[in-house]
């Protein structure tokens, strides 16, 4: 099923906050910008994903800063991606004509090389009749906390803060008021205007952006994305949605290091008005490893190779991991220190405070990450290229440590803040880690402590079957000794721990369907019966919804799986993008877009296609 190509009509005047789903995403493999259906950029960090924001009106309509560019008269708006690219087009339908804004961030020719120039281009085109436009460029540096100076020179506008300077060039006249820049202009059919916002640095002199250069940058950016997507081997029924998910995952990669962020935003609420607001602009080992799996499925081996280099460089047991557990997340540059703090001067999206940067969950123990990590290494070796001897030595250190520590309680996959427990999912992924390492050793004839590894693998299996099963519920449960259900156990057949038609698993699947599934949407758990240390409720968790589809497929319930999958596609936004969660009335909740959701969509589509023939 294809995504609807256009957004719903956007109301005017602009509300203080657009819904999370009313945005598209552009990026240059170093950072991204969120562009609203009304043409406003209300999230942009420069020069990288985890840099302080320049525009953050999505978190505070007054203090955050924004970049408006829209028709100056009442208009209906629609938004779509230039086909097979991450170039975003927002169209304005007025009484006198039709205009559009083409938003993109040029990608360097060598994406793996750190480039010093970061450019955001907005090209305005009148395609029919006559359309008046207006622009407001109102940056607020350092999450709206740092002052800036404005000066003009040589026809350019310079915004200068203590840590970052930006230069605005335009082909139309721009006026300034000492803090912000504004423009009003009218275009007739066939005319264009160009705005370019550039980061400045010691080696990056200011430069203009004329029509010819903008045209060249547009064509080069389109060519880059189409060239990348051409590598995809997917030819199934849901090609448009799968390819949009792949393009989104690519946007979430940080080219200089090969890191993959969980999401490009911070503090978008999992519950409006609630406190479940987190910073996701980091490399979760679990999320990135799953993303590698999804991209390898489609034939994108370059991203897997880059992530393997990131692991080797920054998460090597030689850096201390052999004597202690892996950290669950890292900065995009590999740093381990990610202190969490609140920004009380920002009100949060629709008043959902606090706004947080950094993430204290980095200090949690989550044993499941070993399974995701080693499974991705196993698949990389199988589908891309053989791992090196040094990578195998690192992997052996990880498995040896896990054989000694797999039975510890931990915080679990959902990063609860209600204390450590013996979570079944953590045990399951410990089994995956050891089992995949054994497979890899056997396949390649690599040296390993086979006897110790097999004993540990079998001990984990027996522990799950003995203590993770509740006879009263007729299901595998969230943690040992509990009767609480958890959607993470949907991974049991997906990870090949249990046969998808095993009676115990089918009983578990039925129990999950009854307790946690609502119109194909799956809650990850019920916080009322399984307190997680936080106030409030949350929406359904979209990765679990796609896991559910895949579990149904593997259980032979293909018709149910296809209906559930088609229903899930209706919850995407107008561009085929998903946040982390879906609320009771179908609204997107949480950080946006979410890598977890898009990688699980790819996997579900792949396996459903295969089952349908």
From TrEMBL:
Signal peptide: none annotated. InterPro entries: 6-hairpin_glycosidase_sf, 6hp_glycosidase-like_sf, GH15-like, Trehalase-like_N. SUPFAM superfamilies: Six-hairpin glycosidases. One of its GO terms (molecular function) is hydrolase activity. Residues 19-197 form the Trehalase-like N-terminal domain. Residues 238-605 form the GH15-like domain. The keyword Hydrolase applies. Keywords: Hydrolase. The keyword Hydrolase applies. This is Glycoside hydrolase family 15 protein. It comes from Streptomyces achromogenes. The lineage of its organism: Bacteria, Bacillati, Actinomycetota, Actinomycetes, Kitasatosporales.
